[in-house]
Amino acid sequence: MALLRSEARSVEVRASGGLFGLSASLVAVAGAQEGRLVARPLGLLLGGFQLTLFSDAHVYVEGIGASSLNFPGEAPGYRLQMSARLR
């Protein structure tokens, strides 16, 4: 997974993977929607699809953010932040 950008309380990432010798890559945006943290792929084929990543009746998600962490000699990492309030 690669962080493409983090702005306006949402995060855009590129995810790649393979199965049975076929590989694929997609770009998705994660952000708050009606108090839940959801991800939705960008593009024509999967544009209407959405996946709930986090939902709790007592927590109202307002937004997320991410930044890259690069330490010498280590694999790249990311710092994720989520802003939320109790209901």
What's the arrangement of secondary structure elements?
Blueprint: E1 2-7, E2 10-19, E3 22-33, E4 36-41, E5 51-54, E6 59-69, E7 77-86
Antiparallel strand pairs: 1-2, 2-3, 3-4, 4-5, 6-7
What does the model show?
The chain has 87 residues and is an all-beta fold. It has one domain. Helix content is 0%, strand content 68%. It has no helices and seven strands. It has strands at 2-7, 10-19, 22-33, 36-41, 51-54, 59-69, 77-86. The strands form two sheets. A five-stranded antiparallel sheet has the order 1-2-3-4-5, with no helix packed on it. The chain has a two-stranded antiparallel sheet with strand order 6-7. Strand 1 (2-7) and strand 2 form a beta hairpin. It is globular and about 45 Å long. The termini are far apart.
* Biggest sheet, spatial arrangement of strands: 1-2-3-4-5
Content-based structural category: mainly beta
Order of helices and strands: EEEEEEE
Q: What's the Cα radius of gyration?
A: 15 Å
Task: Specify the overall morphology.
Answer: globular
User: What fraction strand?
Assistant: over 45%
What's the number of extended β-strand segments?
Answer: 7
User: How many individual domains?
Assistant: 1
Into which percent range does the helicity of residues fall? Answer: under 10%
Terminal CA distance: 32 Å
Number of helices: 0
User: If you average the pLDDT, what whole number results?
Assistant: 91
State the low-pLDDT regions, or none. none
Biggest beta sheet attributes? 5 strands, antiparallel
